[in-house]
Design a protein that fits this description.
Pathway: Amino-sugar metabolism; N-acetylneuraminate metabolism. By secondary structure, the chain is an alpha/beta fold. It has 13 helices and 18 strands. Helices cover about 30% and strands about 20% of the residues. It is elongated.
Length: about 425
Amino acid sequence: MDSVEKGAATSVSNPRGRPSRGRPPKLQRNSRGGQGRGVEKPPHLAALILARGGSKGIPLKNIKHLAGVPLIGWVLRAALDSGAFQSVWVSTDHDEIENVAKQFGAQVHRRSSEVSKDSSTSLDAIIEFLNYHNEVDIVGNIQATSPCLHPTDLQKVAEMIREEGYDSVFSVVRRHQFRWSEIQKGVREVTEPLNLNPAKRPRRQDWDGELYENGSFYFAKRHLIEMGYLQGGKMAYYEMRAEHSVDIDVDIDWPIAEQRVLRYGYFGKEKLKEIKLLVCNIDGCLTNGHIYVSGDQKEIISYDVKDAIGINLLKKSGIEVRLISERSCSKQTLSSLKLDCKMEVSVSDKLAVVDEWRKEMGLCWKEVAYLGNEVSDEECLKRVGLSSAPADACSTAQKAVGYICKCNGGRGAIREFAEHIFLLMEKVNNSCQK
């Protein structure tokens, strides 16, 4: 079970998260917020992910692949699978981000240029969204840069808003960090402790730590937002687990975040199962798709040694590896690669062949992985438990997979996918031991 806490807050914060000096605004309840008389319809809670195209830190950061998935895809998957929202939206000014959002099943609000500037605030974009969507009563503003968000977090916050009457709820994380005042020449020449007594430094286990906003989400009712606040009224925080508090702002965060996501991220409603069979398309996955013909008309193909090592590692771990192709490849040429894999060529229906292999081994589809790069691989990619495509695969294949490799076909994609499988299998084994 996730370890979380919630607590009420009394100060009012401005849209940037800094406490304001004024008193909380006296809020007027409306019937759409659940405080009116008579029979009322349930308040419409909309998830809203703000994804501007012009990121200064990392170009098109919101759709850059993190652990094989577009960054925004991680939070969209969590929001959609939570079932907590009547609608899930992405507010963007960029065509590519719009396409990715729709692929994951979100609706898209095309934001105006006025709220897409570097100087535009999140509140500006949210208010514009509300101006176009009168049906929305509550906004759950989810940050695209928080890829370890889980549906259970969103479900609990939705309950706090709907059932417990909070006007706003935001995410925090507990940190055990000692803070010191800043030294400023001519103002303060020495530092002073802010949250500890140096003479009695507490041990971590003897100190509850402090709560910090982690930026994962901000939920607020419409009437509060229209007054210029994302935090205010009857407030509460929602404490997320530290391992789920990942925020990506600069490139240096990326490799660290990938490892965290692979270990603690949310991978979908279906529980992961141990992979027993990997099927790999030959042309464009095992090879780079290039075919060379010798002077005596013999077919020559090339492959990456890294991929051969990846296949061997998979086999040593007990995963069967089989090769498939719709082309009439030379089995003699493929045999010379000495990969010791069963293969089928001249295949017109790849799904039927893979299904036959699956039944032969007594496996369910969740125990099968598939690496494909062409339109002919689409049905297999959609059916298996774990799917992947090389970086240079066709768009149809990439849209169908759960993991897109950084490597091209014939240039390390199999080895990369093998490493991904090993990481997920470690996750499966760890969950079984709990």
